[in-house]
Each structure stands twice: as structure tokens, then as C-alpha cells.
Amino acid sequence: MKVAILSDFHLGFAEGTERASECFDQAGQALKLAIENKAELILHAGDLFDDDVPSQETWEKTFRLFSMLNKAPADATVVKEKQGRQEEFGFSHIPLIAIHGTHECRGKGFKNALEVLEAAGILVHIHAATASFNGLVVHGLSGVPEKKALDALKMWDPKPIDGKKNVLMLHQSIKDYLPFDDEMIASISLADIPRGFDLAINGHLHWTSQEDLNGSRFIMPGSTVLTQMKRLESEKEKGIFIWDTESDSLEFVSLPAQRKFLFFKHKLEGATQELVEKAIESSMKEVLSNQFEQKPLVKIKLKGSLAKGLRQSDISLSKVLEPFCEKAIVFVDKEFETISFAKKLEELRAMQAGKKSISAMGLDLLEKNLAQTSFKNAFDVREFFQLFAEGKVDDAVERLSKNSQKA
Ligand SMILES: [Mn+2]
Question: How far is the CA of 363 from the centre of ligand 1 (A)?
């Protein structure tokens, strides 16, 4: 049997923007690939929706999207089993088994969006449960808060069933893929993935990956739409896996028409408006030397430091980006370490060390900042500070306006 493995459609992503149709277009391509490759079962590893409560517009497009499954008619029954209780689901089209992701998570007592799709007969939703079809057992744990994920996995303790093909399906961060260790962000490592399954599948992380864990395979289909714009996503295509359970072959098939994503990083020291513009223009020149079917998505990350006295907000991007907005969707990330900010902190620390009161520190700062302006002692700083400190803002404003009239 051929099984199509998909993840992270994020239906409803970028609603109301020029990218609104992208999640539906690319999810449609993924389902089409599943049908064209003669899959008899589709697995979805979570974040089918982008929002926990999708909008009416998203629901409408979602039902239209899944009506495509009727092109693969079937007479199939999936059996869900949770805590010894069995439930049968009949399908007149290719059956779909899904877990929910972090984006669909809702509080206790509330129905999540996948439960709605299950009630509509489109899929079978599992959480700490199994779903069986045609000799294959899917053991699924939906997305849980990362901090609790390892405990939840251990408590659930899934075991492959003898004589069947077994698949494990999760939707979590995996420590091995992250650059730092933080249990709020990931508590599960590849070493914690239960063994003995023919295939372990994970959603949540949006780039595709395939690992061999001592003979048992671990795959991440990745998302079908770009939402996070991580560098890794610019290097790997979006697509789906097709797994043949008999031959055990596994193939990644790319979506035929996906929006291209290009990532650039510039490290600038003592950056000025001019240097930033030059960096952006050089990246955009490279982008536009290629031809694209759809406007490409471009992320330009700016690192390093700003010229003395400049703040991030002093760097304006609208003018330099304007000529490109017809040809690309560009995001610029300004991650400059501001020297002045570090200096300010230093000053505060020095003042605190001198055990000045908060108001004395405030007054010193105000005087220092005013000295850098053209204020030239136009009013008595101490008097005004005192008025502000006592909350007499109206009095202060009145005096200020009198002063300026005099001037
Ligand atoms: Mn996701």
C-alpha cells in the first residue's frame, strides 16, 4: 500500500494579505500529488490550520480543498482506538488520518478544528490513540506544550503491534534540530523517539528531513507553505513523502509550483542608512537576476552594529524597498546591537552603583538628554521634573507653553 505523508498545511495563513491563497494552493498540490502517486491513505502530522479557530472564509476554502479527495473514490474503513474503546469511520474517498498541532490546540472542553473535520467525515483525528487501516496502525500523539512533551510521550508509551506495519506520528520540536537547549522550546530528543516502528513521523518543524535512528526511520515532511522563513527553509523544497509499505521505499516528492524563498545575511559594522541601502540593493540585484513564476519571498537579515548615535528606528527601509515591491515580497530583519543602548545600560549601572535615588537618576538622564538637543536651558529642568514626578502634567504643559510663547 502507498501512503502519502503530509504536514503543516497552515490553512488560513496570511489571510487578508497578498499571500492568502498560497497555503491553499500548495496544500492542494500536496493532495494532488498524493492522489497522482496512487496513495491509498493520507497521513497529516498536524497544523492543518494556522489558527485554532479558523475564520469562516478559511472553512469554506478548506471544504473546497478536501472535496478534491473525491477524485480518489474508495470504500474504506478506519478503526480508531483510544483507551480500549473502538470507533469505526467509513470513507467514500481516500481516507485521511491526522493529529492536531500546536496551532489547533484548544482548552479542555473545547472542540479543535480537526474534530470538526472528523465530524464532517473528512478525516480521523487521533491524540494518544491509534487508527488502523489495511494492516497499518498509526499511533498518534497530537501537539502538546513542549515542556510536557517528553513526559506525555513516556506516559502514553506507544507499542508497535505485532504482525502489523506500525507508524508513530508526533508534532513536537526536537532538541537535535535546535541550536540551543531550552526545555520550553523542546524536551524531546531523537534518542527519546520510541523504537520498533516502521516509520516515525514528526510535524511542527517546517523543513523536510530524513534520519536513520539505528535502523528505524524518522522523517519530517515539513510544511507545505512557508510561514517561519528560517534559513533552512530556503535550502529545501516543500513537498510530501510517499511511502510504499510493501517495498518499504520512501520518496520525497516536491510540490511542482511553489513560491521560492531566498535568504540573505549581511554583517555591517557602524552601519549607516547608506550602508544598509547598499546591502539591501546588492541582495535584491541578485534576486532579480533570476526569473520566477511567482513573486519570490526574500528575507534579508542585517546584523552587526549601527554607526554611533544611530538607533534601529533611525534606519528607514520604505524608500529602498519600494522599487522592489512589485517583483518580490521582501522582509528585512534589523538585528543590530546598538552601541548607544549598551552605553545607556552602562551609565545606569554606574548611577545605581553610586546609590542615587530613582528620581535623581531620572533627573540626571533628562538633563543629559536635553543637553544633546537645542533646548539651551529654555526652562528650569529641575522644576519641570518635580512637576512631572508629582503627576502635575497639566501644570507642566501650561508652563511650557507660556515659556515657548515668550520665546
Ligand atoms: Mn507548524
Answer: 48
CATH number of 2-254: 3.60.21.10
Would you place residue 339 in the very low, low, confident or very high pLDDT band (cuts 50, 70, 90)? low
Domain spans of the chain, in order of start: 2-254, 261-334, 356-406
First to last CA, the chain: 87
CA distances from 174 to 46, 126, 204, 222, 353 (A): 15, 21, 9, 13, 43
Q: What is the Å distance from ligand 1's center to 10 Cα?
A: 7
d(Cα 318, Cα 240) in Å, to the nearest integer? 37
From the CA of 214, how far away is ligand 1's center (Å)? 27
**Beta strands 329-334; 297-306: pairing state:** parallel
Report pLDDT digits (tens) over 285-321: 999 999 998 999 999 999 999 888 888 888 899 999 9
The rounded Å distance from CA 117 to ligand 1 centre is 18
**pLDDT digits over 18-46, tens only?**
999 999 999 999 999 999 999 999 999 99
Containing 179, the helix (H) or strand (E) segment is none
Please tell me the distance between residue 138's alpha carbon and the centre of ligand 1 in angstroms: 20
Q: Using one digit for the tens of pLDDT, what is the confidence trace for 121-166?
A: 999 999 999 999 999 999 999 999 999 999 999 999 999 999 999 9
DSSP one-letter code for 18:
T
Q: Report CA(143)–ligand 1 centroid distance (Å).
A: 10
Q: What is the distance in A from the centroid of ligand 1 to the CA of 379?
A: 56
Greatest C-alpha distance within the chain: 94
Provide the CA 132 distance to its chain's centre, in angstroms: 31
Residue 385's Cβ-count burial label (10 Å; 0-12, 13-18, 19+) is middle
Neighbours of 371 (CB within 10 A): 11
Instruction: Please report the DSSP string for 328-369 in residue order.
Output: -EEEEEE-PBPHHHHHHHHHHHHHHHTT--HHHHHHHHHHHH
CA distance 49 to 98: 12
What's residue 405's pLDDT? 56
Q: CA dihedral in degrees (271, 274, 279, 281; nearest 10)?
A: 160
Output the CA 31–ligand 1 centroid distance in Å: 17
Q: How far is CA 196 from CA 57, 97, 129, 159, 193, in A?
A: 42, 21, 17, 8, 10
Centre of ligand 1 to C-alpha 293, Å, is: 25
